[in-house]
Design a protein that fits this description.
Order of helices and strands: EHHEHH
């Protein structure tokens, strides 16, 4: 079990530490309280998978916000696929680095 700080998670997701704090407070990202606050790598992976799955599901829906007709998408957008690839590369790198640290 690998533990990450909020700053580590913020770097991985390319967001601010404040955003990670908001996700924790909203109950979207489980954490271990303390100083520093720690987040399990497995919980981060689950969060990313959940977000990618939600985005992929909603990518094909027609927006009801606009009054003009929208076209329906055939699946995940290129941004979703790029984000999934990026997340996969990051987690692979994290796993490789954790293996070298434990050896």
């Amino acid at each position: 079990m690998r533990l990450l700080t909020q700053a580590d998670v913020a770097l991985v997701l390319k967001v601010s530490v404040k955003t990670i704090s908001r996700l924790r407070q909203a109950g979207e990202l489980p954490y271990i309280p303390g100083k520093p606050v720690l987040i399990r790598e497995a919980d981060l992976e689950k969060y990313v998978e959940r977000k990618l799955t939600c985005r992929a599901r909603t990518a094909g829906h027609i927006s009801t916000r606009t009054s003009t007709a929208s076209t329906k998408s055939d699946g995940p957008s290129m941004d979703d696929l790029a984000a999934a690839r990026q997340a996969h590369r990051i987690f692979s790198k994290l796993k490789r680095s954790s293996r070298t640290l434990s050896s």
